[in-house]
Structures are given as C-alpha cells and as structure tokens.
Automatic annotation (TrEMBL):
Signal sequence segment: none
Listed GO MF terms: thioredoxin peroxidase activity
Protein name: Thiol peroxidase
PROSITE patterns: THIOREDOXIN_2
PANTHER family documented for this protein: THIOL PEROXIDASE (PTHR43110)
Enzyme class (EC, first level): oxidoreductase
Species annotation: Trichococcus shcherbakoviae subsp. psychrophilus
Gene3D superfamilies with a match to the protein in the record: Glutaredoxin
This protein's UniProt keywords: Antioxidant, Disulfide bond, Oxidoreductase, Peroxidase, Redox-active center
UniProt-listed Enzyme Commission number(s): 1.11.1.-
A Pfam family reported for this protein in Swiss-Prot or TrEMBL: AhpC-TSA
Domain named Thioredoxin: residues: 17-164
Length: 164
C-alpha cells in the first residue's frame, strides 16, 4: 500500500485488515506496564488511534482530539498506539496533563498485524484509526492517505457510537 508524506509517495508494508472480518489480535503494554490485548476487550467497542510519533504536532493534535471526544463515551474503549517508547508516552501525558491508555508497539507486533509499518520512517506506524465491535470484528478503518494530516475523527467516532 502507498500513502504520502508531505506529498512524497511512501510504502506501507504488510497486509491491512479487512472491514467486516475479525480484527487482528495483539497484546501490547501500556505506560503502567500492564498488558492490554484485544481478546481482553471483548464485549466493549474499541477505537484504536494509531500515530507515527507523539512528539510531532499532528500526532499531538490527533491524540488530544480523540482523548477529548472519545475517552468518556460510555461503553467505548479508546486505545492510542505508536512505536514511541514507554518513556516518551509517559512524558507526553505528563506534560499534557492527560491520563489515557497509551500502548507502545516496541516489537512491531501491532504494525505487523495491521500492515502499518513505514520503512521510510524507521518502521513507525502509518497514521490510522480502527473501530472494532463487541465481538472483535473490524467495523471501521481509515489509513490516512497523507501521513502529515489528521484522520477523520468525526467519522471514526460516529462509526464507534453506532456500535454501542
């Protein structure tokens, strides 16, 4: 798959999941060293916001927006996923005054499972959003075509709310 980064065409490696099929499994650690797996979230609607690097303005804005709009929706589990280190995510949350579920994909498990590795960016993850229903089926997906822009937060949230 190809996307652009400030107009330059770049490759995203892997096979992306398919809407309507079972979402790929994953187990990642959050900033509190707790393992979070998709299987553990069965019975909850899950919105996954994926960003390349929390220390950039677009990623910062994306993460803040989803935290403001989705974090307090009853029955919805919001996860933010990146290749940032645990320490980088902790520092960002602390500096932002935000307490949210941030998962770090240290070993590339999530990037591999969801087909989001961007070699041009040191295997960081392509900016994307996924909504998974209570049974673990992928019901919405957006892999942002221009990495330097935000995802359609309103569309993702609307898709998630339909499942509640």
């Amino acid at each position: 798959m190809q996307v652009t980064l400030k107009g330059e065409i770049i490759e995203v490696l892997g096979t992306q999941p398919v809407v309507g099929e079972k979402a790929p499994a994953f187990s990642l650690y959050n900033t509190k060293d707790e393992k979070v797996s998709l299987d553990d979230l069965r019975g909850s609607v899950v919105l996954i916001s994926v960003f390349p690097d929390i220390n950039t303005s677009v990623c910062d804005k994306q993460t803040r927006k989803f935290n403001e709009t989705a974090a307090n929706v009853e029955g919805l589990t919001l996860l933010s996923v990146s290749k940032n280190t645990k320490e980088e995510l902790i520092n960002w949350c602390s500096a932002s005054g935000i307490d949210m579920q941030m998962l770090h994909d240290d070993n590339g498990e999530f990037g591999e499972a969801y087909g989001l590795k961007v070699p041009h960016m040191g295997n960081k993850l392509a900016r994307s959003v996924f909504v998974i229903d209570k049974e673990g089926v992928l019901s919405y997906m957006e892999i942002v075509p221009e990495i330097a822009t935000e995802p359609d937060e309103a569309a993702a949230l609307a898709a998630a709310k339909k499942l509640l």
